[in-house]
Write a structure and sequence with these properties.
Layout: H1 3-12, H2 20-33, E1 40-46, E2 49-56, E3 62-70, E4 84-86, E5 89-91, H3 99-114, E6 121-126, H4 134-142, E7 147-153, E8 162-167, E9 169-178, H5 193-207, E10 225-233, E11 243-252, H6 258-268, E12 273-279, E13 284-285, H7 291-304, E14 309-313, H8 320-323, E15 328-332, E16 336-337, E17 345-347, H9 348-367
Helix pairs in contact: 1-3, 3-9, 5-6, 7-9
Length: about 375
Amino acid sequence: MDLINTVSDLIRFRTETGNTKEINQCLEYCKNLFAGTSAKIDVFRKDNIAPVLFIRNHDVEDFDVVILGHLDVVPAEDHMFEPKIEGLRMIGRGTLDMKSFAAVAFNSMFYVLENNLDLKFGIILSTDEEKGSAGTHAFMDAHPDISAKIVLDNDVGGDILKIVNKCKNPVFVKLISEGKEAHGSTPWDGIDANEKLMQTWVNIRKIYPYFSKEQPMPDNTWIDTVHFAKISGGDVANVISNYAEALLDFRLTEDSSVENLEKNLQKCMVDGVTYKIVSSSTPVVMDPNNPYIQDYKKFAEHILGREIEFEQIGGATDSRSFAVKGSTVIMHSGTGDGMHAKNEYVEIDSVKKIADIQIKFLEKLAKK
């Protein structure tokens, strides 16, 4: 297959999360790519759940290698769905996050099939990763015995010279503040839910400090953080609000726990304010000295002609579904910028390099 043309084709599908028509057309395109090959292709579907594309070279559940990723993207203006090449970059929605690397996965599958590599190899691509990955969770529930020795995860970072070995645990918390409405001119007759929410907010900030681009970068960024993602309360200006709520996005390191977070939250609540854990996950933490990761790193450094560093990121990854089962997760992406922004791009050479690295790594694994 022509790797870069396939990237361009994928970007033209407006697969914004929830756009069922475009997602289905994209899935059909992906299936047709493998027409005439021996690949086993299924689209996992469940009512009210986004579909998941499942491609493998053997009809098994115990894989040597799985590539995990997604085909959905965040919203963008129309022109971002017409990929544009400027110099060494391709600009478009999904170039970095992460249709370029879905194409890399397809390229690897073609290589495995054409060269009959002695590997049980699979690709799992969800279509709602940008809004919680319910599809991936449903797929994993439907395949309770699925496993992989190694998971290649290209949905991280944005620098080909860095391998990610740690991702934080995203925990979303809802604050609920209840008060008593009254006329705005007689606040002593009411209980202001907005005020109570802000008091709780202040308490939380005493434990989890505020960070901003306007402030100096902390010396250590591998710490627990929170940002207030959404705040609402009150209906009209002259009425004391009787209800307010906020959605908080916590990012916890592997040294923290949801239980400890709850203990902290309980200390922060004021009368009339409660909290609810909306969702939580697990951090993905890999030992840089893992032999598979070291092998991969050596191939990458040889192909790039440069040393590669390890880094940690605050973002989450769907590969946690396999990490908790004991898989070695190798988190490595191409180079680009503007993820979720209006000028998202990927460096084309980095896409080709990731494809080369994957193939060399798969060849080595097939010989073991």
